[in-house]
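Amino Acid Chain and Its Fold in Token Form
===========================================
Scope: a single protein chain, as residues and as a discrete description of its fold.
Amino acid sequence: labelled as such and written in the usual single-letter residue code.
Position: the record begins directly beneath this header, with no further notes in between.
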Amino acid sequence: MAFDYKKEYKEFYLPPKTPGIVMVPAMNFLAVRGQGDPNEENGAYQQALELLYAVAYTIKMSKMGKHKLEDYFDYVVPPLEGLWWQEGIHGVNYARKKDFQWISLIRLPEFVTKEVFDWAIREATEKKQLDFSQVEFFSWEEGLCVQCMHIGPYDGEPATVAAMAEYAKAQGYGLDFGAGRFHHEIYLSDVRRCKPERLKTVIRHPIKKVDM
């Protein structure tokens, strides 16, 4: 049975539809940075996803090739994630998608070291004949956050975000956007196959304790 991060770490990937507090530990990711409207056809965001998935599946399917990775275990490729921000804005403004700065992410299993990552980039480049220089080995410790499962279209997120902020405040926390701390989304549904009203997205915001 392939290891499934969503099932094994439900506190990070399957939170309830009501807000809660979570401490997120350090993890390693594949990452591509960019800017602009993610809905732009054939735009930078769509290209970033193509690069991420190509490298992610190069690592997963290494079990079928001659190059055996040390400590490899079979696993389900974790869901796509995104960090989002806009210059001069606390949080995000959904009406200004063209101003988005983003980092698209796919979590890496623990056996993937920087050396394994470098091998995967070389392997994907050779097989796909694409430029993977934008893909990074990204180590990140998110820390203390408020999170919630959002059900519905992405443009309906503001109501969920407002509920998260209200809950955090009631628990004695304030939002803590800034260097290394972002609006974070984890995409549990395939937008190409799922009706907008059924989309499942984990939304996570950084918080800190505030003096009452």
